[in-house]
Structure formats: structure tokens, C-alpha cells
Amino acid sequence: MIEIAHEWQTLIAGVLALSGAAATVWTLHRQMQHQREMLDKQIQHQWEQHEDQRRRQARAARAMLPEDLSAICEYARDCGQLIHTAYCDYPDHDRVAEFGPIPTLSDRVLANLQQLIEHLDESDADKLADLLECFQVQKGRFFDALQTWKKAREDGSGPALSHKHIEHPLIETIVLYLLSEHCLGFARRESSHIAAFPAVTDDAVRRAMRLMIYVHFPRDPVDETLLEAMRLQLVPSERHN
Fold it and tell me: Which among 84, 79, 93 has a CA at the least distance from the CA of 158?
């Protein structure tokens, strides 16, 4: 037996070494597999915590969405009334327009919408992002128009605003109102997602003007002229389709 072991000792040593190496590899593989499993569980746990936090923050922000959208609609109404007043401020017109307080939208509303965009599904987030973009465009054109109006009243340079001054800011104000109103169903949990924005049609403009400014629109030739000028500019953009 000893002679056999002595004769095959090299082979036996090789087999034992190979077996030891295999055992080492198997042990390392098990350790690495265990580490991967632990890492996967940690990542899954962190993801679940992140999703839970995202859902909580989205619920908190969405709870304020009806109030935020109502604030935007109110802001748009105030802007629309002021723009319409400025538009009717002609020397030979029987209405005398006064430069009233400039409408503003609370920073809290904008911050809440931005937070909600970060935590909503992509489709709904994109629509609210379009709403914020519309507000930024409307705000810029609205203030440009008001500065023109204010300057004309202060230096007596004639009619406050012409068609070219009023069409785009008023259209953007109406679109802002319509988009905000469109999102109210989602905000009130009447729908699980925000539907695609409809095209801005002539009927939609008339309805918005009635809600924003007064019940009977158009009520005089000045309104008819304004509506016709706006109608020529109403080419629905991609964000409303």
C-alpha cells in the first residue's frame, strides 16, 4: 500500500491540490453570490423607500393641485380682464380704463407644481410641464403688453394697445386658462391621468372669454374686432394636440 502511494504520490498530490482549488473557487463563488444577493436586496429596499417617498410627496403635492390650478385660473381671469380693459382704452371709447394692480401668481403654486412634476408619471408630468411653460410665455408677453399700455397712458401717445400688441398675450392667457381648467379633473381625482390637451378652437376661446371676462362675449364691435384678430392667430401648437 505504501509502495502504491509512493508511486502515485504526484498524481494524488495533484488531485488533492485540484480539489482544494475547486473548494476554494466554490467557496468564493458562494460568498460572491451571497454578496450579490445582499446588494440586490439593499438596492431593492432603497428603491422601495424611494418609491414610497415619491408616492408620499406626489400625494402631498397633488392634494394641493386643485387649489393651485384654481389659483392659475384666477390669475388668468385677472390678466384677461386687465388686457381687455387695456384693449378697450381708446380715446373715443365710452369706457375709461384704469391701470389697476398687476396680477401675480404665488411662488408657492409654482414650487408645488414643480415638485409634483418631479414625482408624477412621465405623461402627466409632461402635461404639467407644458402648463408651466405656457405660464412663463404668457407672463412675458403679458408684462410686455402692460408696459406698452402704461407708457402710452403716461405720455399720452394715443391708443394704448393695438391688435398687434394684444393678440398674443391674450391668446396665451386664454390658453393658460384652458389648460389649467383641463387639468382640474385629474386634480380632483375624477381621472387617473391627465388627458391629452385639446386643440384651442374658436368655440373654446369664446367660452373662456365669457368665463374670464364677462358672461356676454362678444358684446360690442370692439370685442368682435378682437375676436376676429385672435381667430387669425389661433393655430393649435403641438402641446395642445
Answer: 93
C-alpha dist (Å) from residue 100 to 55, 97, 150, 219, 224 = 42, 9, 10, 22, 24
Crossing angle for the helix pair 221-233 and 65-87, nearest 10 degrees?
120
Q: For the whole model, what pTM was predicted?
A: 0.67
Q: Are 57 and 114 in contact (CB under 8 A)?
A: no
Distance in angstroms (rounded) separating the CA atoms of residues 206 and 75: 18
Identity at 214, one-letter amino acid code = Y
Residues in the chain: 241
> Per the structure block, which three cell numbers stand in for 115?
415638485
Residues of the chain with pLDDT under 70: 1-9, 11-13, 15-16, 87-100, 152-164, 213-241
Q: What is the pLDDT, as a whole number, of residue 121?
A: 85
pLDDT tens-place string over residues 61-106: 778 899 999 999 999 988 888 877 776 654 444 444 455 678 999 9
